[in-house]
Amino acid sequence: MKSSYPYYLANQPRSPNQELAVTDKYTGKEVTRVAMADAAAIDEAIAAAVEAARPMRVMPPFRRQEILQHCVGRFRERFDELADSLCVEAGKPIKDSRGEVTRLIDTFRIAAEESVRMTGEVMNLEISPRAEGYRGMYKRVPIGPCSFISPFNFPLNLAAHKIAPALAVGCPFVLKPASYTPLGALIIGEVLAETDLPRGAFSILPCKREGAELFTTDERLKLLSFTGSPGVGWDLKAKAGKKKVVLELGGNAACIVDEDADLDDAVERLITGAFYQSGQSCISVQRILIHESIYEELRDRLVRATAKLVSGNPRDEATFIGPIISEKDAERIEEWIDSALNAGAKLLCGGQRNGAMLDATLLENVPQSEKLCTEEVFGPVAILGRFSSFDRALAEVNDSAYGLQAGIFTRDLYKMQRAWDELEVGGVMIGEVPSWRVDNMPYGGVKDSGLGREGVRFAMEDMTEIRNLVIRTPPARAGGGEP
């Protein structure tokens, strides 16, 4: 790992300072420093993006595809470096870090494929006598300069879900990566700088939150895509003015395990869904609703499986639970657990904290008013509850301000259909936990979980506008002949 990293402004590396210290989230030690952009640099980057809008718009799709394919190749070559940076800056266990690099590659590969598939439609407009002789068609055009703000938990892939679609459709962009985890986005910037993208096509600018106002308020930007906490996201939307806004804001995902579920399979998937990446995922399993006929057996199996999880150094191949992103966040989660216990909940396993390390934790009998039920934990904590009626279980899933994804373990086709019809979420996973996602599917939530959808093709739609064309053919003059 290098001793310092520049930011990228209008495709070029710049190192006016090394103000941002990046720490190893397991040891707490500083490992490198990153240049920080000020308001003047952000303003310059936006101006450059405006200048790049036309060159990006007229770039032939095959050229965009070549650029994205170049990125795919370079990410494969730098696979180990990318995984190592994730392991250090995010505290992500090395096996999970490799998985995220694989998804980064997938996301750019999908974007390369989709970049030559942006099509429109020819429409028959002759739906009434007044439209006789008219024909229409439409195409999609880039929306223009975009603003992206990405989170700490998937520093590579969630940045990729903004960057790759923008390149695929021809939108210049400015990106603010999370201050905890800027390295992944800056390595993407290094690779983009190897291409012949027009000057201003991209800027990747770590900066302080209080100095990032222009990412949201500047009217030269035509779209804001933000992934992060609901409180910040909805506040940004209120300040965004006329620009389109896409928000992915997380949730407190629930999973229903019905009486006919394969318990061996359910245990394996629930453990992964609840504790993968120390629960620091927007779709981490947080609420587990179990049919009363299997409750005790599944509860005991989950406790035994949780106790076997290995916590520790994320560089260790055996580690499943790494550190929380900061000790402050670990302390918050510990406070929520203590609050639930004081309110009458029962601790089944875990609950202990050592610095930024928090044990995988299961609780039951948590009062519905507790934050472990109502808010997003963003840590390795899941709560168990029982149900007797499937419809009541669906209602309990919906009894939340959030609605990102939900999981259902059932073999009943009709219950599956009812869940799809009734659950107020962006996605319903059958035979799977809500934590599952593949990078070409539409992904996003409803209610406080956000607006719009990611997934490469769907993000491309958000980053484009429909431009219509109507052609009138005048009626032939009386007697026939040319008009």
The percent range for strand residues is 15-25%
Largest sheet: 7 strands, mixed
Structural class of the helix and strand makeup? alpha/beta
Total helix count? Answer: 15
How much is the average pLDDT?
96
| CATH level-3 fold name of the largest domain | Aldehyde Dehydrogenase, Chain A, domain 1
The CATH homologous superfamily of the largest domain is called Aldehyde Dehydrogenase, Chain A, domain 1
Could you say which overall geometry the principal axes of the C-alpha atoms support?
Answer: globular
Question: Which CATH architecture of the largest domain is right?
Answer: 3-Layer(aba) Sandwich
Number of strands: 25
How many domains, in number, for the residues? Answer: 2
Q: CATH first level of the largest domain: which class?
A: Alpha Beta
> How far is the first residue's CA from the last residue's CA?
72 Å
Low-pLDDT segments: none
Enumerate the strands of the largest sheet in spatial order, edge to edge or round the barrel: 15-18-19-14-13-21-22
In which range does the helix fraction lie?
A: 25-40%
Rg, please? 25 Å
Describe the structure in brief.
With 483 residues, the protein is of the alpha/beta class. It has 15 helices and 25 strands.
Describe this structure in words.
The structure is a single chain. It is built from 15 helices and 25 strands. The chain has 483 residues and is of the alpha/beta class. It folds into 2 domains: 4-249 and 449-468, Aldehyde Dehydrogenase, Chain A, domain 1 (3-Layer(aba) Sandwich), CATH 3.40.605; 254-430, 3-Layer(aba) Sandwich (Aldehyde Dehydrogenase, Chain A, domain 2), CATH 3.40.309.10. Helix 8 (230-239) links the parallel strand 11 and strand 12 (244-248). The model has no long low-confidence stretch (mean pLDDT 96).
